């Protein structure tokens, strides 16, 4: 009796049989594999879930992590990344922390410290060298134009810097530029608060800082200066040459005081012939209306026919002193130029030009009058 294919398919394991039932019930290698079966097996082997099976309840409630219903994606997954950003592990809450101190405790501590140091005298240091409120010595030197800070430190190390008469070799000493006396190689260093200029005054300029008549004056050459300057001495309107401008009152006073005898040198153009005894007469003294006037030095610089160019040096500063002396000796002055004021020379400075004195020149001026 013939058996049906369904019954035979259940008994036979590997024979050929037709029908749909034989294919579904077939096992082993005779069956055709499902589409995507290898991918499912690979994901099962690696243990990674499918994208549609992944969970996004990171950071959610504890029920979702235990298998309960998840309550949304959680706060940690709101950044947009799969699974959300990683969260740092929470610190151990069982560790003990130091209790915060109360304000009353801090107040009692402060009061106890005040009582402890109440009886001790306070030491008041002078606001000069060594004071923490002053400026470092190398910084003051650098600002005064003595070089870079490193170069000024080398000056200090070489023992070339004096502070209030004492040689300084220690770095970082603090000073007060307005009170302390600072010298380099024996010359006083001018601080930034003091300004020193030399002007080659042209003829026709009045030796005042302001002129009520509107004539050209010295103030016209320093109109853009914020600090008020004043001239050291005077030159008459027709006399040319060097004139100093500064805001250092004591220096200006000493440079013009007869006690310090600062010498000024002039070049005068006169007409000859000149007698040989003219220099001796000027040095011995020429009688003037306000007393005798004596020259410290006299020499003939140039002679072209009857035209003579003579140099006169004197330490007096009376009005029109050189013109009056030569005129009294019988030789009126055609042109007069002051070529030096103390150690500061006119050099090749052009007429009408203003220049700032160097630190060396300022130091020489101060040394000249004992500053």
From TrEMBL:
Compositional bias segments (type: Basic and acidic residues): 35-57, 101-122
Reactions accelerated catalytically: a uridine in RNA = a pseudouridine in RNA
Xref: SMART domains: S4 (SM00363)
SUPFAM superfamilies in UniProt: Alpha-L RNA-binding motif, Pseudouridine synthase
Biased composition regions of type Gly residues, renumbered to the chain: 11-30, 61-71
Keywords linked to the UniProt accession: Isomerase, RNA-binding
A GO MF label: RNA binding
Region (Disordered): 1-136
Highest taxon, organism lineage: Bacteria
Low complexity: compositionally biased ranges: 1-10
A Gene Ontology BP annotation from the UniProt entry: enzyme-directed rRNA pseudouridine synthesis
Main EC class the enzyme belongs to: isomerase
Domain RNA-binding S4: 135-203
One Pfam family named in its UniProt record: PseudoU_synth_2
Enzyme Commission (EC) number: 5.4.99.-
Family note: Belongs to the pseudouridine synthase RsuA family.
Name assigned to this protein: Pseudouridine synthase
Organism: Streptomyces jumonjinensis
Upper taxonomic lineage: Bacteria, Bacillati, Actinomycetota, Actinomycetes, Kitasatosporales
């Amino acid at each position: 009796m013939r058996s049906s294919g369904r019954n035979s398919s259940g008994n036979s394991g590997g024979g050929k049989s037709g029908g749909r039932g034989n294919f579904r019930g077939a096992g082993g290698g005779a069956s055709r594999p499902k589409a995507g079966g290898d991918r499912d097996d690979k994901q099962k082997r690696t243990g990674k879930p499918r994208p549609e099976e992944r969970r996004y309840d990171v950071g959610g409630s504890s029920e979702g992590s235990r298998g309960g219903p998840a309550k949304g994606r959680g706060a940690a997954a709101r950044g947009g990344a799969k699974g959300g950003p990683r969260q740092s592990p929470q610190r151990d809450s069982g560790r003990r922390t130091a209790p915060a101190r109360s304000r009353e405790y801090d107040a009692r501590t402060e009061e106890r410290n005040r009582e402890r140091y109440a009886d001790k005298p306070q030491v008041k240091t002078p606001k000069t060298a060594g004071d923490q409120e002053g400026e470092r010595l190398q910084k003051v030197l650098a600002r005064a134009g003595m070089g870079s800070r490193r170069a000024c430190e080398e000056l200090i190390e070489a023992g070339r810097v004096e502070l209030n008469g004492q040689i300084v070799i220690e770095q970082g000493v603090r000073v007060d530029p307005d009170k302390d006396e600072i010298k380099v190689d024996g010359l006083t260093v001018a601080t930034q608060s003091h300004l020193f200029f030399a002007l080659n005054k042209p003829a026709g300029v009045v030796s005042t800082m302001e002129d009520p008549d509107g004539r050209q004056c010295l103030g016209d050459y320093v109109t853009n200066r914020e600090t008020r300057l004043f001239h050291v001495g005077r030159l008459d309107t027709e006399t040319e040459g060097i004139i100093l401008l500064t805001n250092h009152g004591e220096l200006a006073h000493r440079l013009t005081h007869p006690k310090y005898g600062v010498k000024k040198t002039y070049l005068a153009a006169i007409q000859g012939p000149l007698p040989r005894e003219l220099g001796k007469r000027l040095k011995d003294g020429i009688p003037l209306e306000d007393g005798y006037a004596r020259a410290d030095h006299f020499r003939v610089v140039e002679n072209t026919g009857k035209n003579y160019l003579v140099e006169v040096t004197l330490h007096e500063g009376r009005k029109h002193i050189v013109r009056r002396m030569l005129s009294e000796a019988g030789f009126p002055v055609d042109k007069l130029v002051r070529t030096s004021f103390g150690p500061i020379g006119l050099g090749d400075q052009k007429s009408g030009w203003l220049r700032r004195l160097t630190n060396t020149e300022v130091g020489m001026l101060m040394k000249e009058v004992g500053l």
